[in-house]
Amino acid sequence: MRIFAFLIFLCTNLFAQDTWLKLGIEKAGVYKIDQDFIKKYAPHLQNLSLEELTIMGGHPKALPQKNSDKRIVDWEIIHTQIIEVNGQAQLFFFAEDPHEGSLNPYSKSNFYFLGKGEIKKIPVVTSKNSGQILTHLGFQQRYEKDEVNLLQSGRLWLGELFKDQFTLPAPALHFQSDYQITLSLYPMGISRQFIEFTFGTQVKRDTLRGAPYHPNDATARYHRISNEHRYTFFGTPSELKMKLSAESVGNVGVYLDYWEVKYQKLLKGAGEWIFERTPIPPVLQWDNNALKVWQIGETVKELDWDANNLIHPENRDSRIVAFSPLDIQYPLYAGKVIKPSILNLPVPELLIVYPRAFQREVDRYISFKKENENIDLIAVDVEDIYLTFSSGKVDPTAIRDFCRHLYRKDPERFSSVLLIGDATYDYRNLKNADYVNLETMIPTYESRESLEPIYSYSSDDYFGFLEDHEGDWPEGRSINNIWFSEDARDHTLDISVGRIPARNLTELSYYVDKYMQRKPGTWMNKLSFIADNRDYNLHQQDAEDLERRALENYPGFNTEKLLLDDFPIEDGISPKANARLHEMINQGSLVLTYIGHGSSEAWTNEKLLHLSDISKLKNSGKLPIWLTATCEFGRFDQPGQVSGAEYVLLSPQRGGIALLTTTRPVYSSTNQAINRAFFQYLPTSRTLGEAFRKTKNASVRGEVNRNFSLLGDPTLPLPYFLPEKNELLPDLMQGGEQHNLAGAIEQIQNGEMSVQIMDTPIPAKTIGNFPDSPAFNYEIRSQALVEGRFEIKDFKVSTPFIAPNPQQNGKTRALFQWTNGQEIYFSYKSISLTKLDTTFSSSGPELSAALEDNKGLIWYIRDQYGIKPDFHLEINGEKIHHFTFVPTKGFQEGILLLPLSELKNGKQSSTLIASNIYNITAQNTFEYEIKREALKIQSSVVYPNPVKDFVRIKVKHNRVGENLLGTFQLLNEKGQILQSTELECMECLETWDSEFQLENLSTKGQKLFLQWTLKSAVDGSSEKLGRPLFFWK
User: Fold this and answer.
1) What is the 3-state secondary structure (H, E, C) of 518-549?
2) DSSP H/E element including 263
3) Which residues pair with 341 in a beta bridge?
4) Cα 427 to the chain's mean position, in Å?
């Protein structure tokens, strides 16, 4: 067990006395343990007698979803019996498989645990009861194959597909009477099909309804699977033959879900048999009294033979198991475990659930949060949760139950859970995908529905339903292909839930780095809205509506919009819109909201944003929260595909810090309900998770918004959005007049305040590129007239300044920001601003430039009246967007920085055009030359070496501040590449510290060599080095 409430590292001896053998059970029945098994798998127990060994187990089946339903928590002692077989003592026990009716959707095996401890012997019952003597009992066999999940969503897996004929056999060993066969079919295709059943002399015909399909309906069933058709036949054992025909020859056929037989079975023969629960306590007569007969109820009892070779069961709520000890098999060996003790952990504010393989990065993340956010948290290995709540089986309800355990102890304190790890709709890896590593995954909740794209979903909300009446989470159902929702029985989140869907340590390290390197600034007050075109301006109108509502909820936000119809469309794409989007993202914003059509890989039909664009972003340190209520952009349960949201979250030093996003197709109406709720709660929430929880609870719409998920840390702190600071500025100002910025700042004694005075709203109109996207009127509210930095001294600010000149008279806002190092504060002042009517004489700003080592190109800007933060920067005639403006003294002075990574080799010419508050411009040109030495690796360290599963590489180089590419390769002694990984370092420090994960390689008898190549993204200069690797045996 690994718990990180405190950073303590313990070495664990896996052969200590508290070690338990994990035993896998795939089929219910009787199993044995003997000394041969112990010597092979548990040498630390071989000096103990079987009388000193115990079998323990937890909840044997899939956990019940409803919180109030009964379940087993932790382990219970399992009844055992020692029987001598061929002169050797053997330990026997009855074990349940994980299935209950249908196959367990989460696990192929149930688990029990063998170790030293208290034992419970199976009692022998010799009681007698009178009644009818039976020579048969009810017997059932179910046949089910999980082969295909048609939408790769939900828990319904189907079996064989047949399009012509199919025959089911007639298993009926020792048949007595009452033969019954039941089967479940799912027809596919839009056409009606006709099926004929032949069962013995019975012939039955039926019509299978097709699934309706409308080519223009984006929510139609992708594979057009109709509802379930279930059939039952009675008679004597016979093959069941099925024959299909259809109205058309198109995409038709039938999937078999399962089939099962029931009949009365004679009590005869050897082997092992499990019989159904008996309706009344009968008297049983077998033809073989050498069998052991156990009664399986709440406890296990052995039924002894009476003098007449009869068996007398005690009650009706039990199964009967008959077996010969000679025929019993061993359980499967499934490893060794230490029994966890997580039930005694203190209640934290934040619970982190993670896979053991991610321990190192989780440790680093915890250290940062404790030191910088003062949050009380614990981190628990997900395997320990499974061991405690689901007897070692993967089961999302186990995680929910542990959250509920903490919540019930202290509901006021426990507020958030963070899941670290990717997920998959294929819990059991039935597709045998070699790229899936179930040991590094944290399961999500998959819906029962699997055939309706809109109503099938995955959701982490499930882990936040902690009240007694919750958990079952009812879904609607499709009847004759018409959906009937269950929104009246929706649940609400009691805690915030988030996920970092990292597939490996490298991806997790990228996220941890980004989280630690996020830089506060005025950008954290900005809301960016991006809207798709067409649909008669629906999405653009929604963006305008959201901006208006956000400002009603908090007028101190700085807002900007990108409306796709504002830009020309060229050959089906819009390069200018794409460039503007990159500029918006790179400049930074607190929330980046997209409204419109999309997929898991892109936004809009014009590919406004594609996966390839994410890799080109340059917004390190200014990472927004992405709000993307568009179809499937945030899907994280399909390991073979990296969604746009996963790429945004897990790309190094770029993208986003969190996403509120959708994992399945969605409706625009419910998207807008979520968007509106989010901006209602954003200004008053202390963490992103708090805002998300309130958003979900206020916008519940049945199944259709359950797939809206938080990817990222729910305890990500949000800025403080303070009430209006009326005293800082006068209510009315005229351009060119001198005023004072003066007032009290309670949160910080000495420091700096950033101030922006925004221009009055400017009317604008889109182009109107399409008939269903006519010209659309809207307002621009994003233009700042001035941006400056002012000193706070002794909790006060007092500075004179000259009011800027707006484009037109009207109401606007001044925006304020300050920080005490940890918390970030924003406030505002509503003002009326009027234009200076007379022409003002000024020479414009003073401009000068310099090239500084390890920083880049710096333009120094000064104007006695104030600088307007609207710049035009060129290098060699090409407009540059990726620069940063930093005010340094009031509104009068600032610098414009172009990082070294943006500067090419050779002689260059940079031109800057800037203006002051009176819109009087100045221009200057700076000639410079970049001479870079060839990239040189100055030193390198490889550790640990000898290695086991990873190696860290520290490389010191001479290209500080540049973007570097690293290729790391593992070679054998023949020079063959066994593994290769490419990494990036954005605006790299002098030493690049990276990690190389070693895959499951056979290293026995091999000499391996680690080789790495560093390459500059600016000029392509590179160097290669390598080291031999040594492996622990």
Assistant:
1) CCCCHHHHEEEEEECCCHHHHHHHHHHHHHHH
2) strand 253-266
3) none
4) 14
Strand 906-916, strand 893-899: pairing: unpaired
Same domain, 143 and 124: no
Residues 606 and 574 sit within 8 Å (Cβ to Cβ): yes
Res 664: pLDDT? 87
Q: Are residues 705 and 570 in the same domain?
A: yes
Inter-axis angle of helices 382-389 and 396-409, to 10 degrees? 90
Q: Are 244 and 253 in contact (CB under 8 A)?
A: yes
Burial of 771 from C-beta contacts in 10 A (0-12 / 13-18 / 19+): exposed
Between strands 878-879 and 824-834, the pairing is: unpaired
Helix or strand run (H / E) with residue 584: helix 575-587
Which residues lie across from 526 on neighbouring strands? 558
DSSP secondary structure of 712-734: S-TTPBPPEEPPP-GGGS-SEEE
Q: Could you tell me if 395 and 104 are in contact, meaning their C-beta atoms sit under 8 angstroms apart?
A: no
Q: For residue range 683-710, list pLDDT tens digits in order.
A: 999 999 999 999 999 998 888 888 899 9
pLDDT class for 280, splitting at 50, 70, 90?
low
Q: How confident is the model at residue 131, as a pLDDT?
A: 77
SS3 901: helix
Query: Exposed e or buried b for every residue in 776-799, given b needs 16+ CB within 10 A?
Result: bebeebbbbbbbbbbebeeeebeb
Q: What is the pLDDT of residues 118-149, one digit of tens each?
A: 999 999 988 777 778 889 999 999 999 999 99
pTM recorded for the entire structure: 0.92
In angstroms and rounded to an integer, the radius of gyration of the C-alpha atoms of the chain is: 34
Assigned domain for 493 exists: no
User: Does residue 208 share a domain with residue 92?
Assistant: no
Residue 384: which of 16, 107, 74, 15 has the closest Cα? Answer: 74
SS3 (DSSP) at 166: strand
592: three-class secondary structure by DSSP: strand
Nearest one of 348, 353, 338 to 406, comparing CA atoms: 348
Q: Which residues pair with 873 in a beta bridge?
A: 912
Q: Indicate the residue among 690, 721, 752 that finishes a domain.
A: 721
Q: Is 581 helix (H, G, I), strand (E, B) or coil?
A: helix
Q: What's the pLDDT at 996?
A: 76
DSSP state of 684: G
**Structural domain range at position 679:** 511-721
Please provide the size of the chain in residues. 1033
Regarding beta strands 625-628 and 658-662, do their DSSP bridges make them parallel or antiparallel, or are they unpaired? parallel
- Does one domain contain both 568 and 630? yes
Residue 523 phi/psi, 5-degree rounding, is -65, -20
Amino acid at 1025: L
Secondary structure (3-state) at 690: helix
Are 89 and 47 within 8 A, CB to CB?
no
Q: Name, in order, each residue with C-beta under 8 angstroms of 215's C-beta and a sequence gap of 6 or more.
A: none
pLDDT of residue 129: 72
Say which amino acid occupies 351: L
The CATH number that applies at residue 914 is 2.60.40.1220
Pairing of strands 19-25, 175-188: unpaired
**Residue 531 half-sphere exposure, CB side, CA atoms within 13 Å?**
29
∠ Cα 726 731 735 (to 5°) = 130
SS3 36: helix
Closest to 213 measured CA to CA, from 221, 202, 201, 204: 221
Roughly how many angstroms between the first and final C-alpha of the chain, as a whole number?
A: 24
The alpha-helical segments, DSSP class H, found in 225-348 are none
Residue 707 tokens read as 């797939």
Q: How many domains does the chain have?
A: 6
